[in-house]
Amino acid sequence: MGLAEFWRGGWINRLLVLIGGAMAAFICGGVVFYPEVSSWLGISTRSSRSTTVATLPPANIGPQGDLPGLNAAMLAEEYAQKDFTCSQPEQSGGVYKRVCVREIENDVRFQLEIYGREEISVDRLVAIAFQTDEKYDFLVATRFLEEVALIEYTGSASDQGKTWVRGQLSIMPRVGSEFETLIGGIQFRMYGPSTERTLEMMKPTASS
């Protein structure tokens, strides 16, 4: 008997065959080929075989240095795009160091030093604005050090850092002095004469 003749037969025979096929597929753990019957009986059309799915870490987890969330390689790349020349990481005493330098003129040089216990983590930043004493410009040092203070890490309060840096530079004598404060859980230190105005950002020390 052909398929067309079968379907023209009695509805009881068709129903029995469909139910039998659905139950056989369900027992064997395969795919049910009769979705209209499986829906009547509440049988899932999915295979009973288990599937293992890989669990990926959250995308927002970054390097966990003392300045958490900062990636040393990405930070160096960011400054390279600002016309800084950045070195490859060098390890000494268990600490990795990268140095980014930009020569503005013969008498002006900006330098950012990136330190971390891991190759891509950031534990400490040191920014230095070098100028000759004869051509010292308060605003030149301010623009660079404010920019570094604006670098964002997990828990940062960058606007406060920028305001603090400008305030300290405006009152710092040419011979240099030292100021420090805590902003966003990080210690900010300013020091150095007019020829080497320096900003450090790092985890507070025990004596802070």
Topology:
Elements: H1 3-7, H2 11-27, H3 35-41, H4 72-80, E1 85-86, E2 90-92, E3 95-105, E4 108-116, E5 124-131, H5 138-149, H6 158-171, E6 178-183, E7 186-191, E8 196-202
Antiparallel strand pairs: 1-3, 2-3, 3-4, 4-5, 5-8, 6-7, 7-8
Helix pairs in contact: 5-6
Integer average pLDDT: 78
Number of helices: 6
Would you report the number of β strands?
8
Shape: globular
Terminal CA distance: 94 Å
Number of domains: 2
Order of helices and strands: HHHHEEEEEHHEEE
The main sheet comes to: 8 strands, antiparallel
Hey, roughly how much beta strand do the residues contain?
25-35%
Poorly predicted regions are 24-61
Roughly how much helix do the residues carry, as a percent range? 25-40%
The helix/strand class is: alpha+beta
Alpha-carbon Rg, integer: 34 Å
Please give a structural write-up.
There is one protein chain. The protein is an alpha+beta fold and 208 residues long. The protein folds into two domains: 3-41, no CATH class; 72-202, no CATH class. The protein has six helices and eight strands, in the order H-H-H-H-E-E-E-E-E-H-H-E-E-E. Strand 7 and strand 8 (196-202) form a beta hairpin. Helix 5 (138-149) packs antiparallel against helix 6. The longest helix has 17 residues, at 11-27. Residues 24-61 have low confidence and may be disordered.
Describe this structure in a few short sentences:
The chain folds into two domains: 3-41, no CATH class; 72-202, no CATH class. 31% of the residues lie in helices and 25% in strands.
Distinctive features:
alpha+beta; single chain; about 25% strand; eight-stranded antiparallel beta sheet; about 210 residues; 2 domains; globular
